[in-house]
Amino acid sequence: MQLIGRDLSPFTRRVGVSLKLLGIPFEWLPLAVVADRERIQQINPLTRVPALVVQEDEPALVESSQILAYIDSLVGPEWALTPASGAAQRQVLRLVGIGTGVMEKGVSSFYERTRRPKEFLYQGWLEQCDRQATDALAVLENAAGKAAPWLAGERLTQADVTAVIAFDFIDYAAPYLAVRERYPALAQLRDRAYALPAFAETALDKYR
To answer: What pTM was estimated for this model as a whole?
Structure first.
């Protein structure tokens, strides 16, 4: 099994962290969309990451939520990071949806600031993306303030994985938003998660 993409991508990182947490063996190929475009396109026709190659003789899985659903199916409901049904599932899915929204807006903001020529930067769009990301982080902050000790209770779930990685990405990509100071409960959740090798081994410090 091969995971394609760098852990700088929050979507790729949440797949990699999930695989590590569940003890599923895999090879991580840290390919970048810009530098390794042709190689990634051979694996994923959308030329984006993450992609998960499960078998060499079949097409890769190419969207993070589908990859995570497949990973959960490998370990079964007892160990799956997203509950299989009921109120617990809805709670986790809601928080995951908010967390991935933070990631999406964070990536859009980052690309607007770093990829678009400065003379064409759309300040209104940049501010909207940042506002959407921080509004969503405020929801996760409220949930983290009630965590006992994890967002959905005693057991770490995909809600925690996604929230911590979304928080980390904004902290890295948009330091001017000062998320560690604005969202202390999320910062504490991050510190709790970083006691686990799956998070610590994929820290974004190497990109700073």
So the answer is: 0.96
